[in-house]
Design brief:
Structural class: mainly alpha
Radius of gyration: 20 Å
Oligomer: single chain
Number of helices: 21
Number of strands: 0
Order of helices and strands: HHHHHHHHHHHHHHHHHHHHH
Strand content: under 5%
Distance between the termini: 18 Å
């Protein structure tokens, strides 16, 4: 990948910037499921139709459009907490308030309001992601980026367990309103983390005008020979398992599992499986290199999606669910480790928020746009054909990975070279 072979020493693991990467990951991961899978469970309890639940994925459109307003975060500095922390703090405040508003609504009676407030939550969440990604990139040295990204993903997954697994288990004992108010309180606590964080040093080469913040990062990225290939790969690499996962919670509930079983097995056991996948993935990347890892992990991800089709045939077997979730989250964690490392290598430090937002916006297209049809497709096709389709649609991303095999090191080396020149 063109990085130094000598990694950071063990004492780096406990440095403040690493701990902040972990805590910032938690803040970024908390809102995601509260407008997707956890909200789907609430809507399923309220007897909202599966087609409507599927189209609610469109509430996540801000995740795919965040590159449009990300230049604001590169250009402007708020009068408190600094260029990065100030924006993160504002986003977290907006998230806490809007989650509380969602908690006080009822999906069946207030469907349009729930849709609106879900979009507001997604807007603040996507904006927070843009600034947190920039913050992490700017506070970590090149040889710390891999470990720091792992810390971030660990925090992200821990938050997803709280807003997914724990929320579902609590929903079997408390009202959904109480559960969402608790999640809003957790979001408010993350503001303390932002207050305590160190502000990255402002580079002299950062954009001086909004026009420069918009045009320069796009010009730099699309001036690369491999730009469109990179974008196509990011768009398609995880499309199959993303479409399957978008409708997974209603699938589990409709084939007979309780919310507690989903919370314990899918969210809790799956959480630890994904952490194991991240660890194993990181080790394999060191051994195999990123280009071979992306291909190998991509094949495993496709096979894990096929496990959903098997579960649809078997039915509500706790043992079968455990094996499917273990394999799916293990391989998903491995794929995430390689995918995150790959995207990080493509950003220029002068325009971190904008370029990272562009790449992660494309990554979000399958989750938001394509996944919005998942409910309709599952109702029309049936569970087994639908999950078979999700398995097969992983092929285009794998073909691009195969085509780039042998070229990814070159691509990443060029990106790192550009980044060092611009630092």
């Amino acid at each position: 990948m063109g990085t130094k072979k000598n990694g950071p020493s063990l004492r780096v693991l406990l440095q403040k910037n690493m701990i902040m990467a972990l805590l910032m990951g938690f803040a970024s991961g908390l809102p995601l499921l509260l407008t997707s899978r956890t909200l789907q469970a609430w809507m399923t309890d309220e007897n909202v139709s599966l087609t409507t639940i599927g189209f609610f994925s469109l509430a996540g459109l801000p995740y795919t459009l965040k590159f449009l307003w990300a230049p604001i975060f590169d250009r402007f500095t708020l009068p408190f907490l600094g260029r990065r922390r100030g924006w993160i703090f504002i986003c977290q405040l907006g998230l806490a308030v809007s989650l509380a508003a969602l908690a006080l609504s009822q999906p069946k009676q207030d469907l349009w309001f729930v849709a609106f407030i879900s979009i507001v939550i997604s807007f603040f969440s996507a904006s927070q992601d843009s600034v947190v990604d920039a913050y992490r990139r700017e506070t970590l040295a090149d040889n710390e980026l891999g470990i720091g990204s792992s810390y971030y993903v660990y925090g992200y997954r821990a938050a997803m367990w709280i807003s997914g697994g724990l929320a579902l288990m609590l929903a079997d004992r408390l009202s959904w309103t109480t559960v969402y108010l608790l999640m809003a309180a957790c979001m408010a606590v993350t503001m303390v983390t932002t207050w305590m964080a160190d502000e990255p040093k402002l580079s002299a080469k950062t954009p001086k005008t909004l026009g420069e913040a918009v045009i320069a990062p796009l010009k730099e990225f699309f001036g690369r020979r491999e730009a469109w290939l990179i974008l196509a790969f990011i768009l398609l690499y995880k499309v199959g398992d993303t479409m399957a996962g978008a409708i997974a919670t209603p699938f589990y509930l409709k084939i007979g599992f309780s919310k507690t079983e989903v919370g314990v097995i899918v969210k809790t056991f799956g959480f630890f499986s994904s952490l194991g996948g991240l660890f194993i993935g990181g080790l394999l990347i060191l051994k195999m290199g990123i280009e071979r890892s992306l291909i190998f992990f991509g094949i495993l991800q496709a096979l894990s999606t096929a496990g959903y089709a098997m579960l649809a045939i078997v039915g509500s077997s706790v043992l079968a669910l455990t094996w499917v979730i273990a394999f799916e989250d293990l391989t998903g964690g491995m794929g995430t480790a390689a995918f995150t490392a790959y995207m990080a290598a493509q950003t220029d430090k002068r325009f971190t928020a904008t370029q990272y937002a562009l790449l992660t916006s494309l990554m979000g297209v399958p989750r938001v746009v394509l996944s919005s049809f998942s409910g309709w497709m599952a109702e029309s096709m049936g569970w087994v054909p639908f999950f078979t389709f999700c398995t097969l649609i992983a092929a285009p991303g794998l073909l691009i990975a195969l085509y780039m095999n042998g070229n990814l090191d070159f691509v990443a080396a060029r990106a790192i070279s550009r980044r060092r020149k611009g630092a």
